[in-house]
Specification:
126 residues, mainly beta, seven-stranded mixed sheet, 11 strands, 47% strand
Length: 126
């Protein structure tokens, strides 16, 4: 059974940093492209970042480029999202997800991913 467990969210002031993580089990993590999404109250879940299996290829939402960095540790089966210069508009529930094995088109779409974690809350105050 595939399980994804996020942790590391929190409440902080604008300008601060957080590094949520996502522990994956039940799937060969090193062979899985991974993604981060977020969902704010009353809004659709949106793509934040994705990272290829080796960690070389990365994709970001425009509004987080230069502030967020996605990374992975294949030895620990763990995905990370380093978030710097946080803004109140970054407040959301952050989810990690595993990309579908045979999906190769647009990694920013929800349908590209099959397994999801339960989310970790990030709240940024002004």
């Amino acid at each position: 059974q595939v399980q994804l467990v996020e942790s590391g969210g929190g409440l902080l002031q604008a300008g601060g940093s957080l590094r949520p993580s996502c522990a994956v089990s039940g799937r060969t993590f090193s062979s899985s492209t991974m993604g981060w999404f977020r969902q704010a109250p009353g809004k659709e879940r949106e793509f934040v970042a994705a990272i290829g299996t080796s960690g070389v290829n990365r994709l970001y939402l425009d509004s987080v480029k230069g502030r967020f960095t996605v990374s992975r540790d294949n030895a620990k089966n763990t995905l990370y999202l380093q978030m710097n210069s946080l803004k109140p508009e970054d407040t959301a529930l952050y989810y990690c997800a595993t990309k579908r094995v045979n999906y190769m088109v647009d990694y920013s779409l929800r349908r590209a991913y099959d397994y999801w974690g339960q989310g970790t809350q990030v709240t940024v105050s002004s």
